[in-house]
């Protein structure tokens, strides 16, 4: 079956083998195209292919159902109400599977008419007998099936000889295959034996203790004495029958068991037959018998759930029986009345079997008792209680046991599992209620702080009036606008309350000067409490020259809404900054535990940010970075240029003024840019008409100046400072991703702040300068959320000003020699370049997308050029020339359409499947 399934071309590289016919040949590598035996995914792939066939043929419901439910790997086990229906279904299945390369063989059936039909129509399909005797038994999924009398059979055979080891016992016992648990009274001994064996801690290949050896051989001898044991395969389920399912549960000190029986009434006759059973050994820990009885009831509920799911096409009356009155008492009460062990299991039981389904059965008439205690294998074939259930189950309901228990006076065992109710007196502070209420009713942190500051002022005014009485004048009552000190005090009070609520253990440990709990999230931060009672990061940066808030940021929990409101406030204040910049800004004053996850969550919830999300894809392997991107040069030695717009700007302020279109460029004027940043040597841009025209005009002016007999110094200067202007391929913005990303970031902040507002030129210039400062303050490398030393991160502004543009200047050095200061600046400069080489350059090494190389386009390939509009309108073209990179991969090609020659990136070209002849 596996060899009929072809693996996808991209995955065949994971199925390689090395081969040579003899030692003199070179080793050759082969790829296995079909599914290979032994792989973890092989069985899934085979089953999934069968399911896909069923989904493709869902127009035939019977066929689709059989393919999805009745095929187990390469075995088909199904049936029908009549031989004709069975023949029709099997012919359809055989035809459908054969068209996909799966050919059914070795048919067998309990119907001679069915076998005759298949032997006539298919000479390849033969009936195979697996046994040597004349009872015509075939092995079906590990069970012997006698097709003549339609019975399932067991023929146990354990043949172990001394010495016994763990490995040999497990290998031999795995030969007993009993999926329905029909042999549970015998196999439960083996489970109990395994548990005892494991408690001895014997090695896999060491002899087991003598006592266990004797127990095993005693069981093996009795088990092998069982003759060929048979049970009817067909459980009569027809529309004319009244069918009931009866489940029994019981437990002993060693194991607990559950068994389900099918009770049918047809033409006045009642027939009971064992359907399925299951056993489990008791825990090695000491567990009370009532609890084990409850585990048996829990096992019965899960077994019922499985049976009802399998027999989903039938409707049954369900009855559950147990001989434990304590379990029935627990099931009659609400789960929350009991302790955890009982509550968890009773709630799960009642989801499947509510209280009305449960009844009491005497222990002697409970067949599950046989499975929980075990039975001599010789007695199993003739044990009617096990195979047919209690005798009264074959009688009318009036003969069934009556419930003789009452829950009015619970027993001591029941009371032992009841929860004890404790009464606590809760005291809360008014300030806590006020702060909690503010966070519930307001979504702005600034507003919450100001409201609480007014509350604190009101309390102070009330205290003044209470202390001085009516003699106080109105001038002594503060009614002015809030001051900075008042809002700061209010903010500190709120943060102290939040920290006290979430960091109680940590604050208690800090005050006692003992170590923090091992599982505390603040343990690595080495926190301390400052003079205002705030918990701050201790860290290892005490000797740095950073501001106090940067060295010791305030710690906040991610669970409280104050952290989310703070992130939201800074996100908006910094023009809807992204996660990396936002984490860097927050780290200057606050340390939010687990901030990375919370920041991403807040940005996802931002409505404005969600309006501008886009995604693009391209197939070819991501190319290597250009030389100028990874070479140590001064800033702006090589630069990319792009523009954005149009943006409406006002000619001047006031009403009625006209607006005109403005465009944002990487630099507004070459002279201004050169004066600010220095003249560039290389300029890269896309193929916009403005840039192509600009390059052409510059070349014309340069040639004109060089051709005129003017000052040789000017000619020498122009030739010396000439600029190389490079164009990326047309319609391939990802070739200029570094500046396209910059333009996108400018638009990102501009759209969210500007909206529909129209600014004047001066106002727009101010806003763009502010955005320029933000972009030059973004960290170049990843900001580690768990690194407490990662507070000052390398940014582009470090190469321009030596510090972050958004940072507040620190205190001036008290004494400083000019030479020492110059050496300090040189060391800082060398540190910047070292950090650039070690952190930033290494971060560019991995290919984070486009990680698989695709087949190259070739000359004369017929392609479609992807353009805006439906695919039906895309023009057809032929590849004239390919332009491979240094790695040999083609990312750009020159193509010829019906009326023009174009250069396009390969992700805009779709190769048509056209072959010669």
UniProtKB/TrEMBL annotation:
SUPFAM superfamilies: DNA/RNA polymerases, Ribonuclease H-like. GO terms for molecular function: nucleic acid binding. One of its GO terms (cellular component) is DNA polymerase complex. It comes from the Eukaryota. Pfam families: DUF5641 (PF18701), Integrase_H2C2 (PF17921), Peptidase_A17 (PF05380). One of its GO terms (biological process) is DNA integration. Residues 658-804 form the Integrase catalytic domain. InterPro entries: DNA/RNA_pol_sf (IPR043502), DUF5641 (IPR040676), Integrase_cat-core (IPR001584), Integrase_H2C2 (IPR041588), Retrotrans_Pao (IPR008042), RNaseH-like_sf (IPR012337), RNaseH_sf (IPR036397). PROSITE patterns: INTEGRASE. PANTHER family: PEPTIDASE S1 DOMAIN-CONTAINING PROTEIN, PHD-TYPE DOMAIN-CONTAINING PROTEIN. This is Integrase catalytic domain-containing protein. The gene is AVEN_258234_1.
């Amino acid at each position: 079956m596996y060899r009929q399934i072809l693996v996808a071309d991209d995955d065949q590289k994971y199925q390689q083998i090395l081969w040579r016919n003899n030692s003199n040949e070179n080793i050759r590598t082969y790829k296995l195209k079909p599914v290979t035996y032994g792989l973890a995914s092989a069985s899934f792939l085979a089953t999934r292919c069968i399911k896909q066939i069923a989904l493709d043929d869902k127009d035939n419901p019977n066929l689709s159902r059989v393919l999805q439910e009745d095929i187990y790997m390469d075995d088909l086990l199904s049936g029908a109400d009549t031989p004709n229906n069975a023949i029709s279904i099997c012919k359809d299945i055989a035809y459908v599977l054969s068209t996909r390369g799966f050919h059914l063989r070795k048919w067998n059936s309990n119907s001679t008419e069915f076998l005759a039909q298949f032997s006539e129509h298919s000479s390849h399909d033969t009936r195979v007998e697996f046994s040597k005797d004349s009872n015509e038994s075939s092995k079906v999924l590990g069970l012997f099936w006698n097709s003549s009398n339609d019975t399932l059979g067991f023929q146990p055979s354990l043949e172990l000889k001394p010495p016994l080891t763990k490995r040999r016992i497990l290998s031999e016992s795995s030969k007993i295959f009993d999926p329905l648990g029909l042999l549970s009274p015998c196999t439960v001994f083996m489970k109990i034996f395994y548990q005892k064996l494991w408690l001895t801690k014997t090695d896999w290949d060491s002899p087991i203790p003598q006592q266990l050896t004797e127990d095993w051989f005693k069981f093996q001898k009795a088990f092998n004495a069982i003759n060929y044991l048979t049970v009817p395969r067909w459980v009569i389920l027809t529309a004319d029958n009244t069918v009931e399912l009866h489940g029994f549960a019981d437990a002993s000190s060693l194991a607990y068991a559950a068994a389900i029986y099918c009770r049918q009434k047809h033409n006045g006759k009642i027939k009971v037959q064992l359907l399925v059973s299951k056993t489990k050994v008791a825990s090695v820990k000491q567990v009370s018998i009532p609890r084990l009885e409850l585990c048996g009831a829990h096992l019965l509920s899960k077994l019922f759930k499985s049976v009802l799911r399998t027999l989903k096409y039938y409707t049954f009356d369900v009855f559950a029986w147990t001989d434990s009155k304590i379990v029935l008492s627990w099931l009659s009460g609400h789960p929350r009345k009991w302790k955890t062990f009982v509550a968890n299991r009773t709630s799960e039981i009642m989801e499947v079997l509510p209280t009305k389904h449960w009844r009491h059965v005497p222990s002697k008439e409970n067949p599950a008792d046989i499975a929980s205690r075990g039975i001599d294998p010789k007695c199993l074939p003739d044990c009617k209680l096990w195979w047919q259930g209690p005798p009264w189950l074959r009688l009318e309901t009036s003969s069934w046991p009556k419930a003789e228990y009452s829950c009015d006076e619970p027993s001591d065992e029941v009371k032992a599992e009841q929860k004890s109710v404790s009464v606590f007196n809760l005291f809360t502070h008014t300030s806590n209620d006020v702060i909690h209420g503010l966070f519930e009713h307001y979504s702005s942190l600034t507003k919450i702080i100001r409201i609480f500051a007014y509350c604190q002022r009101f309390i102070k005014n009330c205290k003044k009036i209470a202390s001085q009485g009516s003699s106080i004048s109105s001038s002594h009552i503060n009614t002015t606008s809030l001051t900075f000190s008042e809002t700061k005090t209010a903010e500190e009070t709120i943060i102290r309350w939040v920290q006290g609520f979430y960091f109680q253990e940590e604050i208690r440990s800090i005050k006692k000067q003992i170590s923090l709990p091992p599982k505390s999230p603040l343990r690595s931060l080495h926190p301390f409490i400052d003079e205002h009672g705030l918990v701050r990061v201790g860290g290892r940066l005490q000797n740095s020259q950073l501001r106090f808030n940067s060295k010791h940021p305030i710690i906040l929990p991610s669970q409280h809404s104050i952290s989310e409101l703070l992130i939201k406030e800074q996100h908006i204040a910094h023009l809807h900054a992204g996660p990396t910049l936002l984490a860097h800004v927050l780290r200057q004053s606050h340390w939010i535990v687990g901030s990375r996850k919370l920041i991403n969550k807040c940005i996802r919830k931002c409505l404005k940010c969600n309006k501008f999300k886009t995604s693009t894809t391209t197939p070819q392997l991501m190319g290597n970075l250009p030389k100028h991107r990874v070479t140590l040069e001064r800033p702006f030695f090589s630069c990319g240029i792009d523009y954005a717009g149009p943006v409406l700007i006002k000619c001047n302020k006031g009403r009625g003024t006209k607006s005109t279109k403005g465009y944002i460029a990487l630099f507004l004027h070459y002279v201004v840019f050169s004066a600010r940043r220095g003249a560039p040597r290389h300029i890269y841009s896309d193929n916009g008409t403005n840039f192509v025209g600009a390059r052409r005009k510059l070349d014309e002016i340069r040639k004109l100046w060089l051709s005129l007999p003017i000052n040789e110094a000017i000619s020498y200067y122009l030739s010396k400072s000439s600029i190389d202007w490079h164009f990326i391929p047309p319609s391939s913005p990802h070739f200029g991703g570094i500046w396209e990303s910059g333009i996108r970031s400018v638009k990102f902040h501009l759209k969210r702040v500007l909206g529909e507002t129209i600014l004047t030129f001066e106002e727009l210039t101010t806003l763009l300068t502010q955005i320029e400062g933000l972009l030059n303050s973004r960290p170049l490398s990843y900001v580690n959320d768990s690194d407490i030393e990662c507070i000052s991160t390398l940014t582009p502004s470090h190469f321009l000003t030596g510090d972050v543009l958004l940072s507040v200047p620190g205190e001036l050095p008290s004494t400083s020699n000019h030479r020492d200061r110059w050496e300090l600046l040189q060391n800082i400069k060398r540190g910047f370049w070292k950090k650039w080489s070690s952190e930033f350059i290494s971060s560019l090494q991995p290919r984070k997308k486009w990680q698989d190389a695709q087949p190259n386009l070739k000359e004369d390939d017929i392609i479609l050029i992807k353009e805006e509009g439906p695919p039906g309108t895309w023009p057809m073209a032929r590849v004239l020339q390919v332009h491979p990179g240094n790695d040999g991969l083609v990312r750009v090609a020159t193509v010829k359409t019906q009326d023009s020659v174009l250069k396009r990136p390969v992700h805009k070209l779709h190769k048509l499947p056209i072959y010669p002849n």
